[in-house]
Amino acid sequence: MFHHSSKLQYNVRVDKPDPQFAKFLQQAIGGVEGEIRVAMQYFFQAMGARGDDKYRDMLMMTATEELSHIEFLGHAVALNLEGAPLTVQEEAAKDPVVNAIMGGANPRHILSSGLSAMPVNSNGVPFDMSHVYATGNLAADMMANVTAESGGRVLASRLYNMTDDTGMKDMLSFLIARDTMHQQQWLAVIEELGGWEAAMPIPNSTPQEHEATEHSYYFLNTSLDEPTPEGRWTSGPSFDGRSEFSKRDKPDPLGQKPSLGKARPHSGTQTEQQK
Amino acid sequence: MFHHSSKLQYNVRVDKPDPQFAKFLQQAIGGVEGEIRVAMQYFFQAMGARGDDKYRDMLMMTATEELSHIEFLGHAVALNLEGAPLTVQEEAAKDPVVNAIMGGANPRHILSSGLSAMPVNSNGVPFDMSHVYATGNLAADMMANVTAESGGRVLASRLYNMTDDTGMKDMLSFLIARDTMHQQQWLAVIEELGGWEAAMPIPNSTPQEHEATEHSYYFLNTSLDEPTPEGRWTSGPSFDGRSEFSKRDKPDPLGQKPSLGKARPHSGTQTEQQK
Amino acid sequence: MFHHSSKLQYNVRVDKPDPQFAKFLQQAIGGVEGEIRVAMQYFFQAMGARGDDKYRDMLMMTATEELSHIEFLGHAVALNLEGAPLTVQEEAAKDPVVNAIMGGANPRHILSSGLSAMPVNSNGVPFDMSHVYATGNLAADMMANVTAESGGRVLASRLYNMTDDTGMKDMLSFLIARDTMHQQQWLAVIEELGGWEAAMPIPNSTPQEHEATEHSYYFLNTSLDEPTPEGRWTSGPSFDGRSEFSKRDKPDPLGQKPSLGKARPHSGTQTEQQK
Amino acid sequence: MFHHSSKLQYNVRVDKPDPQFAKFLQQAIGGVEGEIRVAMQYFFQAMGARGDDKYRDMLMMTATEELSHIEFLGHAVALNLEGAPLTVQEEAAKDPVVNAIMGGANPRHILSSGLSAMPVNSNGVPFDMSHVYATGNLAADMMANVTAESGGRVLASRLYNMTDDTGMKDMLSFLIARDTMHQQQWLAVIEELGGWEAAMPIPNSTPQEHEATEHSYYFLNTSLDEPTPEGRWTSGPSFDGRSEFSKRDKPDPLGQKPSLGKARPHSGTQTEQQK
Amino acid sequence: MFHHSSKLQYNVRVDKPDPQFAKFLQQAIGGVEGEIRVAMQYFFQAMGARGDDKYRDMLMMTATEELSHIEFLGHAVALNLEGAPLTVQEEAAKDPVVNAIMGGANPRHILSSGLSAMPVNSNGVPFDMSHVYATGNLAADMMANVTAESGGRVLASRLYNMTDDTGMKDMLSFLIARDTMHQQQWLAVIEELGGWEAAMPIPNSTPQEHEATEHSYYFLNTSLDEPTPEGRWTSGPSFDGRSEFSKRDKPDPLGQKPSLGKARPHSGTQTEQQK
Amino acid sequence: MFHHSSKLQYNVRVDKPDPQFAKFLQQAIGGVEGEIRVAMQYFFQAMGARGDDKYRDMLMMTATEELSHIEFLGHAVALNLEGAPLTVQEEAAKDPVVNAIMGGANPRHILSSGLSAMPVNSNGVPFDMSHVYATGNLAADMMANVTAESGGRVLASRLYNMTDDTGMKDMLSFLIARDTMHQQQWLAVIEELGGWEAAMPIPNSTPQEHEATEHSYYFLNTSLDEPTPEGRWTSGPSFDGRSEFSKRDKPDPLGQKPSLGKARPHSGTQTEQQK
């Protein structure tokens, strides 16, 4: 069950409201790299977690933290929208600089939300829940989480560069820090479960006889004119300890030339396709 | 530039066409765990790759391979739809068993595509390109790719269990194998770049002074009644070699109680909100 | 800031797991009538609330409650999926009754989530955040909330009828009850603010001179052959106390016949459109 | 059956074309607060209306009116786009003021629609029909309609402030007026059906024994540190006349600590989750 | 301006209600081949039509007809849902045949719409307005319309085969007929404008010097092992009368090998990408 | 099976990088008129092609070419983003002209993709695969393809006008040329199959007795005050050679006034709807 306390997890201060930066910040709320995504992803993973309950607990705890991130970011967006012109008669609206800034602002912050945050990204596209990755497989979910936190920290770092408001930089430095921890936290689960060798290939429970293992360890070069890029993936032991990497430079198709033959009557096709 | 040869990358054989399994297979084409996603993800990552061109080449080669996976899966869907009833007059349509199967089939395989594959998932929801994760950051992109291949192999393993058609099992065993390789291949890039210690936190180019590092290495317990789940993430050195993990059991809010005060005139709010 | 405690807000018991009912329940999680919607709607309304802070607090408290509803519904979905066949070899899968049930199940509950809840509706369509209605206008938001809770209680009542599992009926009777309260709670805000007469038209802050009031109080009959349906909306005082209702039976267009004339050169049109 | 006459329902005049305002106006066409939404919502509600046919008629009549609103708004968008620069060679395009305006314009008005209206909102996001709320329950539908018209009038009021074109202000004053009527019209249906006491809780046909009425009339405070906001919702008779409001300050969870136990074999999970 | 009359454009009769066929029919309402699409497409094309007003009129007239098609199809869906089981206690619900049918039905027809039509396709995916193709170019729009009507008639023909209800067959035969006319009607506009030779290439107003005409008339064979399929497109005069068709069997890339070099500092990439 | 060679299909040169034009170019990648759409549309049509395999081959060859178009356009976007300001400290960012340009840029090109192409349109809306039209009917598919290429050439022509960069104009002139060929190529298939008379109505395999042919050849005027626009569609032989065109000026509804009567018990409606 969820509870709430009245103070924000982190302090939000905006020294110089900036409607364009409000639009940028939306990416951290409603973007695929944003906080709604991780809050909901960890929440649904927790609800579906099978096995040792400690991972379920861990997921729910961090899901709860991410809800608090949405909250302070939402406040930051609203504070950045303070003072945005609401009518063309306002002095501000006649200022060409303001005008240029407003050209880069999200009009729905004025028209739809009344100067507050929305669950959309910096293009105004609403977040959709298909980005909540929760497979029921603990290792696959951990990878999805490291991905989300990596994208999140890349985004926060870029936002940090795009403002010179010290309040906003302070808030973003906190987000950058928490994303550092969260990246590591999910990787730590993999390590606890025996590391890559034990965890891979994901899922590690797939019986070997379900796999055409003769195709499991070569890098396939599909280029007609480029040599195979050599690296850790073309030689040496595989990470799961089961084989050696190799490469295949000239891919020969292993299948047939496909053809579906004639169309059947009553199939809604042209008559010519049926004969 | 892309080229095509006429044979499939892998052989497709369907011994006993099954419209319901055709619907299931769609998840591997147009699902978030599917082949359109990885093909397009690696393609866009390749086009945006900066730094050593060998990673760009590697990404483009595997993007090209994934296009070939779409192709043979598309053929598998069409073959599973052979013989599906097109009219209620057909004998097959009167058979209760067929009826039960068709109840679980995707009606658009008959109504919209004329018995062939569509770029949708197993619920008939079209794939949308917001799932193409490409950040420009090589390590973040590699994580996204391991995620995609993990989800892909989980899916292929589950599909393998849901059919007893030997042709389909053979095809899926090939997919399972290639997903094994692709998971490892992207992790190998991380290893080449120095491993986790060098790569993390992602992005590793964010200056330390942009980060509130006092918040970077503790696990935050947000539960009111559960003890902190102990593990590799609560003690020991952090993976980036910069600090030690710790935990914080009683989170004190660090911020203010937010309030936006009165609404401004002309803001489209109720009058009562303005006074 | 959010917190979590380990027990569910309400007890979840499933006496007879039913994968088809798991699919139905998804409507209450990820449907437009569902709990993700209200949780996020109240949350974003709270973050944008201007005026008396007590409404902000009230919104945040109920947002938090709705998060707890997602949680117990998610558990209910997972429990309904216990025992669903994971392979075609399982005995269950050969049973025609099971087969019929599975035909009506969501295949992604097996293929994608591994027998647990997803943030999708009963058609498998992911929830998208465009359904989070938050205008910054308190009265408009209250109406949106009554709407959401009305749809929610309609849905819960229909779900109640579609199961005979006593555990599920018990859980749904709790949801029905809370939706009763929440409908009333949001209407009570309108009453506190002076009732309909004071609140309407929404927004009540729009100056009268911005409104063509000669068009504000008549019902327009646009039918060529039906008489105007008479009712409270065709006569008597308007609810805002400003005028009397009337009706207009024969709508005369008040505007011009529109024409855009010729297309401009360089507009990408056909040449014929330009002369 | 629908018919059309050649003149617009209301006169459209644009004194000073403004591509940026064309973008803003799109919110009133293809936004969730816009005219496509209400036209289609009333249309689908009418088609599904059961009970007294007069509500069906009323819904269809207003649906028809809303189609006419789309039409004149579409003309207003096109007129605002007259003269927008189509080539970088045009004089206009070299003017920095024009440039600033165009930076805030929707590029698809030039690239995709050839200077005319599109069924998208002011961020260019296409309207999607999931926003057509039609439950089959008359009272729930009326609430959805008041919501839509409230959002619509808030939007029209904000648009009114964002232009100083007298033609546009005149057109918007008409929209503001019609939204006034439509808000009242749908509320009047509730009054006709006996008012809130009779209508609530929605649906009022749910048998009392399907409801855990001990949970139906208290406000739940989920905050750890805020007192319950007192108001009409914490004491006094409930609006349905069935009970008294109360409050619950310290929510005790009523349910169990959830756990799903081990994962089953063949479930595509990690082996560790299965033991 | 739009008007409505009370009778349906065509008679709707359902002899044997069938919830599964109700789901199928949804494709003709809310599918990309359906009536919402053509109604809105012709409507938006009409509003943006520049040039001879007769095409604008024609588009608006047929848009209006298509609205009437939505209306009678919506009624057909509702009639097919009459009698669908609303509770598990109903006799019907215990019947295995009913059960099988309901497994193939759309649960939202019961849970969300209360036994009536929804603006969704046969998978329950809501129609989205990105499918309204309106370019401002008359010939491009005509092609889009022939496409929509071709898909529509293919769909109606397939639906005709999937029912043996004589009422439904009668209604579908009307739809098939109107789609015949509409296909021809839009092609007739092309003929009036001088036929293909005059209309192509679309847009025919693009100056020849904007086109690399040496690449305008050859078929490009991108296959490594298939001969060029010979046909009307590989030889003979082009349809625009400007050139001769030819073929190019061995595509030589005309461009460079792309590389973006190093990443810039502050770009949120890994450090290794910047050196 | 797909292959790749390292050079682009066409040369890409950007003389003066322009982040705003990068945003515009996205329409040609991820817009409905763009290259992802045609690549995937031809690919799925090829996989579902029944009848003469030469059309399947032709479709796959051009699908492959379109993948190469995505590739060079993606490079063009990245080159246009070179030099875009990444921090507010950069000199460029202080320049008002740069500022105005950035106001019109896509912030996600900085925040999300790190200065490279994304699978989105010029509003930042991701491409979704519902726009892949593939019906299994060869003629319907050809029409869809002419439509896509017409929209594509309209777009390329408009983009050509919106830049004065000679490199970009050169690249676009190539796209314009290939779209010329592709429009013709798909029409040529219709001609090969006997031309319009043989191909129409699509599908030409629908038995005449499934069609209410008395409604197949008249233009329906649904306007109350406009005369029927006369043209090739109101008289003369129909294109399929089966009949003569006519017109119907006064549409009489052919159907009943619809009514659904009372709602059933347990349907989740208001009690008043049930009596």
From TrEMBL, chains A, B, C, D, E, F:
GO molecular function: metal ion binding
Amino-acid positions noted as binding Mn(2+) 1 in the UniProt annotation, renumbered to this chain: E35, H69, E149, H182
Pfam assignment, any one: Mn_catalase
Transmembrane helix in keyword set: no
Domain of life per record: Bacteria
InterPro entries: Mn_catalase, Mn_catalase_dom
Record flagged with keyword Chaperone: no
Residue positions binding Mn(2+) 2: E66
Cofactor binding, per record: Binds 1 Ca(2+) ion per subunit.
Entry protein name: Manganese catalase family protein
